Amino acid sequence: MPTARAQLARFLARYSPAVRKVAESARVRLRKLVPGAIEMVYDNYNALVIGFGPNQRPSDALFSIVLYPKYVTLFFLHGAALDDPDDLLQGSGSLVRSIRLLPDASAMDRPAVRALIAQAIAASDVPFNPKQRRTLVIRSISRKQRPRRPSGSDRSNAN
């Protein structure tokens, strides 16, 4: 059985180099901003999801990085409750809000985005333990999946 890191690398390899680069950069940034987070991976039908939470309970996760064929999105899983004075968060659902990371993950370096991340962490019912060992968990892999690259793209790297 491959390690979780090897599985995640295989999942990421199915995306275009541009999407993969944005996702990997976003993941590095979020790992620095959320020390002690448990990363939960869902290779779902529509997208690859990397959730970040204080433990392995999906309901306690606060953020996710989601890869689609053409872009990457940072989701705030309780974003509707956040104070967003700069109007950065997209979405109109009762819970989730998001920021699309285009053309790169540098949006995560903006003070207003970092403030939203800090606000979400501070509002969490379950605190993150910054001393907790970082863990990567593969939670689910869907048998049937949509293509991971836009139609007409080079699929030579697809698994």
Key structural traits:
6 strands; 25% helix; disordered C terminus; alpha+beta; 159 residues; 6-stranded mixed sheet
How would you characterize this protein structure?
The chain is globular, with a radius of gyration of 15 Å. The chain is of the alpha+beta class and about 160 residues long. It contains three helices and six strands. Strands 5-4-3-2-1-6 form a six-stranded mixed beta sheet, covered by helices on one side.
Low-confidence stretches: 154-159
Domains (count)? 1
Structural class: alpha+beta
Number of helices: 3
Overall 3D shape: globular
Roughly how many Å apart are the termini? 17 Å
The portion of residues assigned to helices is 25-40%
Overall pLDDT: 93
